[in-house]
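Example 9 (inverse folding). The structure is encoded as follows.
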């Protein structure tokens, strides 16, 4: 009884993570080291992890870790080599959603303040490890070497390392990676080491023939920020400690597109304070990478869809840079507080973009973002907790709750707070917030209390009024599903122009409107507003309008993926069959989850046969998390038998 009370006490006042099976409150992981021997041809990894745990309660007998489809060979104490008993506790219907428990029986009772160091030997392969995308050599540009990349967020790290897979726990992360083919270069979250600092945990036959890489990160991170790529990749400096990594064929083109990385870093630091992580490296992945970007420290991942040719897609790079402060330095404690990462990140991203492209352009981004958040809310249901900033992910794979909602409602909340507190003091608030919570994982209530105290201390006679305004909306903003309780001002003539042009096309019923050529001058975010108007009013868009518009703008096979994705949404809604081959081409070349989920949903509704045929064709190209998501969507639209 005392044991239970003592362990729970440390968690009182803070939200727990409902998406981990680990006993992370009783015992916390402090350090994770992995040693992996990669066989990319066989899509197989021979793995050992070594972890240090700190005991937080008076009697600890077991350590429970998260695992997903891992094959565990042995668990033993690092110091003595003594084997510890372990069992896999199957979690029934959660097994394929969130995984199972690796329960380790300790050799004795451990007490508060003691440390335990364990090794776990295990294997991974392409079937179980849903965090890993294994590409065959044929799927790469050079077609000579296979390629591997990971995506651990939300809780997929447990499919590659047995650990406490929760953003509540931050660990020091180090790694040794061994490869058989010397052409394979490896990058993993952390600084590459050249002095072979870590002793090998295993003996390897033909060690001389293997190439070894070691990495170390001296700032603690949560499991979801661990990332790896391995393949024929090279890095190129873009100046001032920034680098681009890609397949050799693309490196010059990508480095050119991202040549302003040092500018973005400088602008971000001018606004929010010093960058503490060392170098900044961004990998442009092969097309099957499922997200726009992923913010692993020192190893940002980005989709090749951000490379448009005119630097118009680089907002993603700015977003990922912003995560170095919000998300990576101060982290949301669980998936319900994901907005603490993303809402703040979008705020910083748009702050910098407004300085580069002007405020009107950023307002268009906010309008587009809100419209995609609203589309997700309609899909979830307007009163579903996933349509709130604080989704209830109990017994769910938190990936299912992923949408623009926390990004945009979080951004809108911060923009509202800035309007109350005023721009310069709010910048100071953000800097103080980072300083106060750096290296911690927090929840919305900690942020809320800090905010109120900050206003009390720094806003003198205005403080009381501002606090009352915040108190009126905060909990509603965070917890109530649907649109934000207060609408922020995003009015801009750019929005009105784009909508008027779209309306003129609909009204023209196939006639080309007077100002039709304005479209070519629009930036992608204004094109997106134009297309969104047509999507929102698709029932009024006649076939002749689609034909003429496609003739005029050549939208099918457009270069910018964000624009063409919206065009294809419209194509599928109005059943403009002439552009269907374009959709086919797109879903076969772009692996971004958010695009594919929407397109397969529309295909399922309107083009059932193509939905199933194209999914079958491309299953091996998509990342495993995307395959799972599309399978779930297609369940809504059972395969129809076509009788010819
Ligand atoms: Zn983000």
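The amino acid assigned to each position is listed next.
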């Amino acid at each position: 009884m005392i044991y239970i009370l003592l362990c729970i006490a440390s968690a009182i006042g803070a939200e727990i993570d409902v998406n981990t099976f680990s006993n992370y409150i009783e015992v916390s992981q402090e350090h994770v080291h992995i040693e992996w021997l990669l066989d990319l041809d066989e899509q197989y990894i021979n793995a050992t992890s070594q972890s240090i745990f700190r005991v937080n309660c008076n009697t600890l007998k077991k350590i429970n870790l998260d695992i997903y489809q891992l094959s565990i060979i042995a668990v033993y104490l690092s110091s003595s080599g003594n084997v510890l008993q372990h069992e896999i506790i199957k979690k029934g219907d959660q097994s394929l959603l969130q995984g199972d428990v690796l329960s380790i029986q300790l050799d004795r009772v451990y007490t508060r303040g003691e440390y335990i160091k364990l090794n776990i030997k295990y294997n991974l392969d392409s079937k179980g490890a849903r965090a890993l995308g294994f590409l065959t050599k044929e799927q790469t540009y050079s077609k000579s070497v296979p390629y591997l990349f990971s995506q651990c967020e939300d809780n997929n790290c447990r499919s590659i390392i047995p650990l406490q897979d929760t953003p509540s726990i931050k660990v020091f992360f180090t790694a040794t990676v061994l490869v058989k083919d010397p052409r394979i270069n490896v990058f993993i979250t952390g600084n590459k080491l050249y002095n072979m600092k870590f002793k090998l945990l295993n003996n390897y036959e033909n060690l001389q023939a293997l190439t070894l890489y070691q990495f170390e990160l001296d700032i603690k991170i949560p499991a979801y920020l661990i990332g790896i790529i391995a393949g024929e990749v090279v890095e190129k400096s873009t100046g001032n400690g920034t680098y681009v990594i890609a397949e050799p064929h693309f490196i010059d083109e990508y480095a050119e597109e991202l040549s302003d990385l040092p500018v973005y870093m400088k602008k971000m630091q001018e606004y929010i304070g010093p960058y503490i992580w060392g170098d900044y490296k961004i990998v442009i992945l092969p097309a099957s990478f499922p997200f726009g970007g992923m913010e692993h420290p020192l190893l940002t991942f980005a989709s090749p869809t951000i490379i448009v040719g005119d630097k118009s897609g680089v907002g993603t790079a700015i977003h990922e840079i912003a995560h170095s402060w919000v998300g990576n330095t101060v982290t949301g404690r669980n998936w319900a507080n994901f907005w603490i990462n993303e809402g703040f990140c979008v705020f910083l991203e748009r702050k910098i973009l407004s300085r580069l492209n002007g405020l009107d352009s950023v307002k268009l981004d906010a309008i587009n973002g809100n419209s995609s958040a609203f589309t997700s809310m309609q899909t979830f249901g307007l009163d579903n907790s996933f349509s709130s900033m604080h989704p209830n992910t109990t017994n769910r794979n938190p990936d299912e709750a992923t949408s623009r909602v926390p990004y945009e409602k979080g951004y809108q909340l911060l923009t509202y707070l800035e309007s109350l507190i005023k721009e310069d003091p709010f910048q100071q608030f953000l800097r103080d917030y980072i300083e106060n919570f750096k290296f911690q994982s927090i929840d919305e209530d900690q942020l809320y209390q800090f905010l109120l105290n900050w206003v009390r201390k720094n806003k003198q006679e205005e403080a009381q009024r501002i606090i009352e305004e915040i108190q009126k909306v905060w909990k509603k903003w965070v917890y109530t599903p649907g649109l934000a309780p207060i609408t922020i001002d995003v009015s801009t003539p750019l929005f009105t122009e784009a909508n008027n042009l779209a309306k003129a096309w609909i009204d023209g019923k196939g006639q080309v409107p007077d100002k039709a050529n304005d479209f070519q001058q629009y930036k992608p975010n204004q094109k997106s507003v134009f297309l969104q108007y047509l999507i929102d009013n698709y029932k009024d868009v006649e076939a002749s309008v689609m034909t003429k518009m496609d003739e005029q703008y050549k939208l099918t096979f457009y270069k910018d993926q964000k624009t063409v994705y919206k065009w294809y949404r419209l194509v599928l809604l109005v059943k403009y069959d002439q552009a269907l081959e374009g959709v086919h081409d797109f879903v076969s070349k772009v692996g971004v989850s958010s695009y594919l989920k929407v397109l397969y949903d529309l295909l399922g509704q309107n083009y059932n046969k193509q939905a199933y045929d194209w999914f079958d064709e491309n299953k091996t190209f998509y990342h495993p998390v995307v395959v799972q998501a599309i399978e779930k969507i297609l369940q809504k639209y059972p395969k129809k038998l076509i009788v010819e």
